[in-house]
Amino acid sequence: MEPTNKVLMINYEKCTGCRLCELVCAVKHDGKSNPVRSRIKVMKWEHEGLYIPMSCQQCQDAPCINGCPVNAISRNEELGRVEVNYEICIGCRTCVSVCPFGAMNFNHIDRKVIKCDLCDGDPQCVRFCEVKALEYVDSTDVSIVKKQEAALRLSVAGKKATALQAE
Amino acid sequence: MALDRKIAYINLTTGEIKTSSIPLEVRKKFIGGRGLDAYLLFNHTKKGCDPLGPDNALIISGGLLTATCASATARSHFMAKSPLTGLLGSANMGGFFAPELAWAGFHHLVIKGKAKKPVYLYINNGEIEIRDAENIWGKTTTETQWAIRDELNDQEVKSCVIGPAGENLVRFANIMTGIKNAAGRTGMGCVMGSKNLKAVAARGTMDINIAHPVEAFEYNKRFIDQITSAKVNQTQGTLGTPFIWGATNSWGGVRTRNFQYNQCEYADDIEPERIDEICEETMGPYHMSGCFACQVHCRAQYKIPSGPFAGKYDEGPEYTSQGAFGGEPDCKSAETVLVGNHLVDQFGMDNLETGSIISWAMELFELGILTRKDTDGLDLSFGNDEALLEMVERICYRKGFLGDTLADGGIQASEKIGKKSFDYLIQVKGMNNLHSDERATPALALNIATASRGSDHLRSRPAIDLYHLPEKVLRKIYSNPIPYDGPLSSEHTEYIGKSWQVFWQENCYMAVDCLGICKYHTMFLGATLPNFEDWPKVIYYNTGIEMTPEEIWDVAVRCNTIERLFNIREGLTRNDLKKGDTLNHRYFDEPCRRGAPDVIGKTIDREKFEIMIDEFYKYKGLDKNGVPKPETLKKQGLKNEPSHMV
What we know:
The structure holds 2 protein chains of 2 kinds. By secondary structure, chain A is an alpha+beta fold. Helix content of chain A is about 30%, strand content about 20%. Chain A has a single domain (about 5-140), classed as Alpha-Beta Plaits (2-Layer Sandwich). The N and C termini of chain A lie far apart (about 60 Å). Chain B has 3 domains: about 1-205, Aldehyde ferredoxin oxidoreductase, N-terminal domain (Aldehyde Ferredoxin Oxidoreductase,  A, domain 1, 4-Layer Sandwich), CATH 3.60.9; about 240-430, Aldehyde Ferredoxin Oxidoreductase Protein, subunit A, domain 2 (Orthogonal Bundle); about 440-635, Aldehyde Ferredoxin Oxidoreductase Protein, subunit A, domain 3 (Orthogonal Bundle), CATH 1.10.599.10. Helices cover about 40% and strands about 10% of the residues of chain B. Chain B is built from 24 helices and 18 strands. In chain B, strand 10 (about 175) and strand 11 (about 180-185) form a beta hairpin. Chain B is globular and about 60 Å long.
């Protein structure tokens, strides 16, 4: 299999905060509904209506890999993900503490660390997210989309600045 | 498993807490949610109990499917004897509270007694603690929620709370969660306030095992696709419930100036598009919020653009608020709708009842029944935005004669005000009507007249009756799962066949309320949405319980009968203007003045209306007076109520 360039793109401005992604993540992986079993989590600032889904960024130079004392975490290039080998993992949770995104979770029921595995290339959170706050796209596309949005903002800002100057 | 979620019995006088499991036999009879709440209420209260006394039971619940792998199972339900109506009190809301309660191990809480001082309940993974709430008493609904999170040092806690209105025993105070999710009707927040109970906070990380996870997962996807492919939900997901404002107003279904007109001339000024426009600076791009696991996401977000509340974030306004703070009081500004909505959200009072009762007072002011002496100098004229917003606050804090009087609800207020004021009150069973006008739509009129919690559009409204669907389509919908070969009419101004539609919808809505699903996910506003035939699989895959569509129907019928038994026990009689299945005389006597050609001039025909009631009673197995017949109770397995199974 070819290495994939695909990434989980989170566009939080589209997120409605419904947490269906958390529900399907938990049920898909563990057959149980429970937010602590979810690999993805929607962080919320309810008093201003801001919702930001957080999940593993599958870093190239991942702190969790570097920090793991028993080399239980590695990159799987074919699936474009960072994964945990539970045969080796000793449950020390170093990865939980070093992850800059809080994306390595500790499931206190099964007493093990859990993280996004991109559902082996078919992320179910993406499949269920009707508003497309979550998308699974080529990483090159992500930067193009971001460039486009930023350019548009610049253009609007430019027009506003011109208008201000004209006043 | 969903089935291992428990009932907790909490006595706030003694501090005693007991828990019990829910036997499968009870599940099969009442499923859960509102249906089981009704059974619990009937069993745990005595005839004539004081709604604000310690013997009233406040029941809080999630549905059978809450937080399982099913779509939009966010609904929590609240039940008690209503301090507004003296009959069934019942209200339902979305948000994130019910799932958290289920993850904390409970499906139903039965709260009785009265705490000596303000308290709140903290429910955490099977444990229930009664905690001191003196520091949060007096706070608004959102302040209360954030204060509880800070006190418990846990930002994941979800609470249902009362605001100042509930504390001040405003009889239509609601219970709220999040920014604007409200169990709005029948004064459940007033009951909570009477128990000195400020909030119920839940936090749970207990597994809900899915009986058949793979099947449940895939079926859920199918379900969501069915729901999101409906045009009505797509529109709802961009505009929220206000999407029906323009259409309803155009044919003449929106009451304005209390009940004087049935169409407002400035509808465009309070349309959601207008709200987007004025909030663009403060809120930015248009955005929606969703309740737990729901892909309809019908809650619009806004920030008030100007004035003393500039920059305040809120959600909505719903269709109801457009009427309550726009059409009914004849106020023409979107800003007023936004501020009014924000005030009731923060105070924790029912937007519908608030706007409606103030509009009634405005009409009384116009008629001279109320004077400036009664209003402490306030010019309570129709269209006076400032007076409207001032009255919202006066009601919440029971300020002045009128604030205090209106806070007791329409019927009590009318008894205090006297002078024919009651004749102008647009209520059924003591609860005011939505700003909708049902004079041209007999099916909808029957719905509000017979809804178990008083005038209400969410108990049995055949909303699709307005779509003029071909009779063939109606027949397909309304002859399942129980055969029906009587008449049906596509014409919304007709009386024929409407009683069956109302009866069918009553059972459909009861079923979703038992399951804990939102009504936008069933046959409410869209004719292609799931109903009886779609639910057996959702129930089976998630809980393992096998039920046929007919069995679900039977449960719904049974639960509706229990609600009826409660109302009959507390004094409902067929023709009682204050406690009966009938309408204000204005529905029969005052013709519609505006609207579409087939609406202008319409009133409800009293004779035909009574025939509809007769038919409706017949379908429900009630006698001519609306009392369940002995054979009905026997057939539905209710002849020994109260039977105290739980």
